[in-house]
Amino acid sequence: MAMDDEKQTQILDSVGTGDVSSADGDSPLPVMAMTPMQYRKLIWKLDVRLLPPLFALWFVSLIDRINIGSAKIFGLEKDLHMNPKGNDFNIALIIVIIGLITMEVPSNYLLKKTSPSIVLASQSFLLAIFTIGQGVITNFTGLKAMRFFIGVCEAGLIPGSVYLLAQYYPRYELQWRLSMLMVGNAVSTAFGGLLALAIAGIKSSNEYHPWRWIFIIEGCMTVGVTALVFPFMSDWPQSAKWLTAEEKAVLADRIKQHGIVGKMDTLNSKSLKRILFDWKIYVVGAIACCTTVTVYSVAIFAPTIIKQFEPTSSARHVQALVIPIFVAATAGCLAAAYASDKLKHRASFALFGYVLIIIGASILINQQHVSTKVKYGSLYFMAVGGYISLPMLWTMLVNNISGSYKIGYAIAMEVGLGNFGGIASALVFQGKQAPKFETGYKTILGMSVAAAVLVIIYTAALMMENKARTAGKRDYRLSDPEVDNLGDDHPSFRYGY
Q: CATH assignment of 49-230+268-470?
């Protein structure tokens, strides 16, 4: 039965907030009853419409960010007169992260005020242009400029995607979807390695060495992919014509059943304070920072690290050894995501990832006592551990934040703080520390231990707060004149861990 226009409008306004009440606030709007099979079909409908375009953008964008790792072993430093024993390469890495950190919060604010599809596609297109630019520059100064704008243009993709999906999916459907996008990173790293192997054989008449063609070809590929997927990208649920009002009501009701009941649709001084001073955002941001040290280190420095294991190996052989590491990371990421959503639990899986990282880093700290094969295997531990833990953190925050403004800020801030880990990885894997990179591995070990401790503290704090709310110790907030704008401070909101 079709709903009248007024009720459809009310439901559209409620999506993403968990509020499916009627206009008078007393009686709920009718929600279409669904069998488990019908509900799974609805979630599948979301998957088909939302994930492929975002996956494609994640796939090409990460290639454009980390392909400098492959370019390095194919002559980048020599042609641009960079000092291989100095900090030039690390500076090029840090500049990207500065661009990322600068623009992540502004990008999510722009998404909130405009169209996610236009913002994300435009950023991807500009990212491709600057990637191509890396292939034609002639000096280190030009490389630094291109790298900064690559960071600026890629800044919105991860927080924007998490923000968008959090408005569609119920709490315990989200981990698998975010991990699917994280898989886009792992697959792109492996594919980028394969592509670099193919490009390495290019002999051009204009004396362009293979590293230039890595940037040019992969940048052109990003232009093509962006143009292909843009017509299929989606905006906010309120404007999703491919969902009926009844389907939107079911999703909003399921979100409410999972404990996401608070709204924060008005941005005023009180709500801004709740956003800016929420401890959860900064604790999870700190954990993300500790985690991205490993993710960045393995993604960018794996070819360099493997080259130190086997100094006589060719660049193509080294690149071939990188690929299966990220195939394993893909499998581990998806397996953990599936189990996490089924068990409705996150923290233990994140902790398991840190255990794997700690094992891998410990092996490499003592690498003089183990064989080359064991050292190579340790990279699998670190890659799988990082790819399990990082997407868990995204969900551990977005599941515990309510209100569209707050979600947008929280995710952008988490990813932005997390990118400081990329700066740390660039600083501790310097050419002068080769071949052992002992400082780098000790940093990964220390950061992973710190992350595990913070996850335990974060989880314990959420458990205690849930108990306090169940005992009615937060019911005094119901007398707040802005009770409908409390977000996750609402006494009925329940945290997930």
A: 1.20.1250.20
